Amino acid sequence: MSNSSSMNNAVDPWNNIKYIIMQICHIPSIICSLYALIHLLSNRNLRMALHNHTSLLLLFISIFDSFLNHPFTLNYLRTNQVSPPTDTMCLVWNFFNSIFTVSTYWTMAWGSIERHSLIFYLPIFARQRNRILFHYIPLFITTFVYPVVVNIVVILLYPCQNQFNMFSLYCAFPCSLYISSIALYTRLAHNFIPTFIIVGSTIRIIIRVIKQKRQIQNNRFTWRKYRRMITQLLVLVCLFLIVTLPATTVSIIQNCCISNFAANLQVSYFNFLVRLLTILMPFICLSSLPEIWPKKIVLNHIRVRRLASNRVRTIAIQKTLN
């Protein structure tokens, strides 16, 4: 059994501001996610393009996070307490929050690694067996299997006694995260390592593109395609680093040097900033997919109609001449 602590902490005076920011972004984020998903899934070429699958998964994560996690956060920021104040509520909230955070980090990490192969070793994915082994299975593991399994073990099944605080964001932490070895593992595996992979893979791609730029630019079609994939990766990575780098930097300093370094900033602001990652992700995904921008879709419909009308005119003229 776990016990709950109802000891009142000082209320964060910025909770109302955080609530307004999240509430303003929440509904537009859902609309943007649904719009992007509908157009990506309804267009076969976009749906089958391997380099779009990371964006698709990030959009799905954002949607599920918006419905299963954000309402708990919004309610806490509005009332300054967990409601309903039960251990079950705290476990469920921590479980969903951790799943979607870990899933976002590792989907981005694998997407960054894979983007290098999609740009420079695309023929590898020509065979279906290779696509399953090197694309679909790793994405399934990083997006779903690992986040769900590790959080079931760490949050739901770990044999320890929880002492939740009903006046703290996420009820403070599950008891397992107060154990130094598990806390260190979660920071390494769910924060430091995926961040280093994302940064390292992106830098590697940029360096290789600069080295081979002349060779790639000789083929305009290939260069245009590669430039689009690189741009898509860069905008996602930029958002990821802007939102997560402060919390990651503070965590590194706390682990290696000063244990209480910027502790108040980390709890009150940087952890909240990470919460915006899945909210802002749909806007970034949409910005990197010009094929599904509303203006582009309208122009494509106009072009299709013009082509159809021109064909009808051509056929009519040919019949008249005959």
Write up what this structure looks like.
The structure is a single chain. The chain is mainly α. The chain contains 12 helices and 2 strands; from the N terminus they run βααααααβαααααα. 77% of the residues lie in helices and 2% in strands. A two-stranded parallel ribbon has the order 1-2.
What's a quick, concise take on this entry?
The chain is mainly alpha-helical and about 325 residues long. It has helices spanning about 15-40, 45-50, 55-70, 70-80, 85-120, 130-155, 180-210, 215, 220-255, 265-275, 275-285, 295-320, and strands spanning about 5, 165. It is about 75% helix and about 0% strand.
Features:
single chain; 322 residues; mainly alpha; two-stranded parallel sheet; 2 strands; globular
